[in-house]
Amino acid sequence: MSSTDKFILHWLDQSRSHRILWLFETLGLNYELKIYKRTKEFRAPKELEKVHPLGKSPVIEIIREGKEPLLLAETGHIIQYVVENYDTTNILKTSTPEEKELVDYYLHFTEASLQGFLVALLVGQIAQTKAPWGTGFLVKLVTSGINSQYFQPELLKSLKFLESQLAKKSTNQYFVGNKLTGADVILSFPIIDNLFSNPARASTLSGGEVNLVRDFPNLHAWTENVLKLPSYVKTNEIIDKKLGSKL
Amino acid sequence: MSSTDKFILHWLDQSRSHRILWLFETLGLNYELKIYKRTKEFRAPKELEKVHPLGKSPVIEIIREGKEPLLLAETGHIIQYVVENYDTTNILKTSTPEEKELVDYYLHFTEASLQGFLVALLVGQIAQTKAPWGTGFLVKLVTSGINSQYFQPELLKSLKFLESQLAKKSTNQYFVGNKLTGADVILSFPIIDNLFSNPARASTLSGGEVNLVRDFPNLHAWTENVLKLPSYVKTNEIIDKKLGSKL
């Protein structure tokens, strides 16, 4: 790593890439933003496959002097690698091995467990409105059945788990220790963008019986704290300006 | 870490925990195996929630002299932590930072991307056979529609990506470098257990049009290589003996 290294973030609207922008802003990295917009079917555009064969976002490139550019994919991996190699002033780094272990856990848990249930619920929701292979009513009946049997209980279990983790800490402002870490960065998308900032979606995804603010007071306090962090505010401003509209 | 540290693996049949057993066997760790069996609805039993609030497997405990036991969850995180701290003779460790970066990528990719599509497809498949909220025919119609629109193309894209990664290497026996690493360990469950060792499930999950051996020759060669590794053979023998039947 070197202080002359430059970054490119391939950013897709309404995607997991939002927090990588926040990561770059937090660490003050020298980055360029390439913006992609979803198709009307809410999918990533084909151009992203030219960057990485899986065609997803976030993908980042690290441009290094005298070395091949490094292409990194998978949100948890990107956060882990960038913090390890480019957080030179310990803005996000933890101070004990125990805290580092816990951040690593959240980097895996968020994408491998929590986000999977949200994607499955979201796919079912999109299927209900697009349904080209049948009627919306039937699709709704079946996806609601599958969701209530499997994905919704799993999502709620994960949210209760996160709530309990914050509740047992002396501060509910951050997930690990008393400071911002990669754990807060990775959890910001599913908790804030997918749920707290989108009450209509949260209600549909959770089956309509959950009141996030009432049922998850610690997650709510954490959300309120993140939303007012200067780096997070600036991240949203950058995107509002680039896209010409609120997310 | 210390050579006197002991491990407990909470192992669930037909689950992601199988490869953690393989990890422990590969590293020659001093471990105890606690076996859990799925309910008739193919869910994890409630007892697992006493071990970890999310009630999933794998979960491991590391019993350390003079310290609190350490509870670890999430497959990618467990592999990363155990290799980093307990692979004292470099059986799985990589030799360059580039290889380490690539293993870390696969630890995230496998659970955050590949496994998510497989779980969604599997849930749809179970819903078709259990369907208490409607008829199997309707559930099959709708889940088939959703699967063919979203989850199957994503699964195939991931498999093609893995195939291309092996194809460009000088050996298709391992995913990173010329030796066994955590990447092979984590990929063994989705690729071998879920797909190559279960042609009927593979055919259903992929929509019936895929012939794994014909379409993915490098993944097939890698599978054949892993299946004959002594540590992998021994892992399967241990489970066959404990469960009294083939997996």
From TrEMBL, chains A, B:
Molecular-function annotations in GO: glutathione peroxidase activity; glutathione transferase activity
Protein name: glutathione transferase
Species assigned in the record: Hyphopichia burtonii NRRL Y-1933
Top-level taxon of the source organism: Eukaryota
InterPro entries for the chain: Glutathione-S-Trfase_C-like, Glutathione-S-Trfase_C_sf, Glutathione_S-Trfase, Glutathione_S-Trfase_N, GST_C, Thioredoxin-like_sf
Residues passing through the membrane, by range: none
Start and end residues of each GST C-terminal domain: 96-243
Family listed: Belongs to the GST superfamily.
Alphabetic keyword roster: Transferase
GO cellular component, as recorded: cytoplasm
PANTHER family: GLUTATHIONE S-TRANSFERASE 1 (PTHR44051:SF9), GLUTATHIONE S-TRANSFERASE-RELATED (PTHR44051)
CDD domains: GST_N_GTT1_like
E.C. number: 2.5.1.18
Domain annotation GST N-terminal: ranges: 4-90
SUPFAM superfamilies per record: GST C-terminal domain-like, Thioredoxin-like
Catalytic activity: RX + glutathione = an S-substituted glutathione + a halide anion + H(+)
